[in-house]
Design brief:
Blueprint lengths: L2 H23 L4 E4 L6 H15 L4 E3 L1 H12 L5 H11 L3 E10 L2 E10 L5 E8 L8 H19 L25 H12 L12 H6 L13 H6 L9 H4 L17 H6 L16 H9 L6 H5 L13 E17 L9 E15 L13 E11 L3 E5 L4 E20 L4 E16 L11 E17 L2 E14 L12 E15 L4 E16 L4 H6 L3 E16 L1
Parallel strand pairs: 1-2, 1-3
Antiparallel strand pairs: 3-4, 4-5, 6-7, 6-16, 7-8, 8-10, 9-10, 10-11, 11-12, 12-13, 13-14, 14-15, 15-16
Helix pairs in contact: 2-5, 3-4
């Protein structure tokens, strides 16, 4: 064997040994096993089982060291970046968490593996756990195989985290190569000032003929005051005239005697246009100068800028519950034996609808013009208690009614709207299965009347209103029969206060508090009227309701 061959073999053997040395001395993978959740004893057994599986093949970092690294990283960053800093500081590649579920005789250990550099959960392994002996041999092999596979995958770099911010490629605006050495010098000087270099026209007749026409330089920006004053030239020298390194070599004068308007018309379309401001009012002028059109502050100073036109509603429908209190009293001598019906409460549901098909304003208006209204109501769960000396009796109350109206609604201004109308309706008040000793008649008022209402707009689409009405009772029901009080003449008046609050999606909340009083005058002919000397009576009703509605 020659000396050359022996030397070659020796070198080859040495290279192989050097290559194998790092593999033999490579440190095992570094993981941290956090405290497990669940019943304390079972959680400790589960963590010890995982430690025994990983302890021989992996470098297990203490939990305290990992928590210190995370706390230090939290002072500078958050989220995935915090995990990345903590992983680099502690050298941890994976974080292992666990949870033990105690299901009676069956205990389940769930082992969660997270990537240390971003905190994302990679996988979950579930095995059965014995509360005393820990994991069985078969479950231990299964857990070890699954953990090895997951940790090998993480360690191989297949799951590298993506950068928090996407890479940005800087692009140069302008020509890719300077046309001459002088232009390169100018470009370098301008770039040092933080601005891209502008293209330079070379003083060459042939090049000028072949090259496209050079873009005219931008005009220096003028203050708004100069723009308002006129087009008089400014005496202040431009930046290029005061620069010490400005070029002074002779160049062909390409300027023409064109008027200023023509020069401005030839400027590129991407040039910024001067702001248009008003000169009528000094205060408005100052605001427009400080906050030009498009500035977000403009919507705060002038809300009309942010206003979005909307179609005037023509229909309104709302419904909800109501509560009321009725009092029916009679004018009679003190020694008369008449049952007074005072302060009896009722409750129920009401539904209202209004349609104004021809509003006076199509856009950004309110209900207006000729309109029609309708309402119905019915009691629910209402009763009255009567002390009949020997016994206490309770009777069910049936209160219901309806009303139809024709209105004309007119907005006097953006704040005030008036409404006038006529209406016809019916109100029924019955006491079901009352004894003869309970001498309170059923009433059924049919009426016809007129109303007026005033609405005030306190904010956009939020209203408060006040109204009054007067009506004549056409029929009073059993109250006017000869078995009770006989023929009566009755009329009524009402007062109301309302509010309306807008909600999203054309919804609104409407509340109303109303008072109604019916005056009754007897003329004789009724049994109670003649026996007790009744001359008249009053039937009053107080009602409050809150409804949810929609306008469209």
């Amino acid at each position: 064997m020659s000396i050359t061959t022996s030397a070659f073999r020796f070198a080859l053997t040495a290279a192989a040994l050097c290559a194998a040395a790092p593999t033999a001395d490579a440190k095992p993978k570094r993981v941290v096993i956090l405290d497990f959740d669940g019943p304390r004893q079972l959680a400790d057994v589960g963590r010890s089982s995982v430690m025994s599986v990983l302890g021989e093949q992996y470098d297990v970092v203490s939990t305290k060291r990992w928590e210190q690294a995370r706390a230090a990283a939290a002072q500078k960053s958050h989220g995935p970046e915090q995990w990345s800093r903590a992983a680099k500081q502690s050298g941890v590649g994976a974080v292992i968490e666990g949870c033990v579920q105690d299901e009676g005789r069956r205990k389940i250990l769930n082992v969660v593996v997270r990537q240390a550099d971003n905190g994302k959960e990679f996988d979950t392994i579930s095995v059965r756990l014995d509360g005393k002996t820990g994991i069985s041999a078969e479950s231990s092999r299964q857990l070890q195989a699954s953990l090895d596979e997951i940790l090998d995958w993480i360690d191989s770099g297949h799951n590298e985290t993506q950068p928090v911010y996407p890479p940005v490629t800087a692009k140069r605006i302008g020509s890719s190569k300077p046309a001459s050495d002088d232009e390169a010098d100018a470009e370098v000087r301008v770039r040092r000032r933080g601005r891209p270099a502008a293209p330079v026209v070379i003083d060459d007749d042939a090049a000028a003929e072949d090259a496209p026409p050079a873009r005219q330089p931008r005009k220096p920006k003028r203050p708004v005051a100069e723009a308002l004053a006129g087009d008089a030239p400014s005496a202040k020298p431009t930046r290029s005239e005061t620069r010490p390194d400005a070029r002074t070599d002779a160049r062909p004068d390409t300027r023409t005697d064109e008027p200023a308007d023509a020069t401005a018309a030839d400027e590129p379309t991407h040039e910024a246009k001067p702001q248009t401001v008003s000169t009528a009012d000094p205060e408005i002028h100052d605001i427009e100068v400080l906050f030009p059109p498009g500035a977000p502050e403009g919507g705060i100073l002038d809300p009309k800028i942010k206003h979005v036109p909307w179609k005037t509603p023509r229909f309104m429908i709302d419904g909800g519950g109501y509560m009321g209190s009725r009092t029916l009293t009679w004018d009679a001598p003190p020694d008369s034996n008449i049952t007074q019906f005072a302060g009896v409460s009722t409750k129920g549901f009401a539904l209202n609808a209004a349609v104004y098909p021809f509003p006076t304003k199509e856009i950004d208006g309110v209900l207006s013009g000729v309109g029609f209204t309708g309402s119905i109501h019915h009691s629910a769960g209402s009763s009255v208690v009567f002390d009949n000396v020997d016994s206490v009796e309770e009777y069910v109350l049936n209160q219901n009614g309806w009303e139809l109206g024709v209105h004309y609604r007119a907005p006097l201004s953006s704040l005030v709207t008036i409404d006038g109308g006529a209406f016809y309706g019916n109100q029924t008040y019955e006491i079901i299965d009352a004894s003869q000793d309970f001498e309170v008649p059923d009433t059924k008022y049919s009426y016809l009347g007129a109303s007026a209402h005033l609405d005030l707009a306190i904010t956009d689409h939020a209203l408060v209103g006040f109204g009054a009405r007067y009506f004549t009772v056409l029929d009073a029901g059993d109250l006017a029969s000869t078995d009770w009080f006989g023929p009566v003449s009755a009329s009524g008046l009402g007062l109301e206060a309302t509010f309306q609050i807008p909600l999203p999606a054309n919804l609104y909340v409407r509340g109303q508090l109303s008072y109604q009083r019916v005056s009754l005058e007897t003329t004789g002919g009724g049994q109670i009227t003649d026996d007790e000397g009744v001359t008249g009576g009053t039937d009053s009703l107080v009602t409050g309701n809150v409804n949810l509605g929609i306008a469209f």
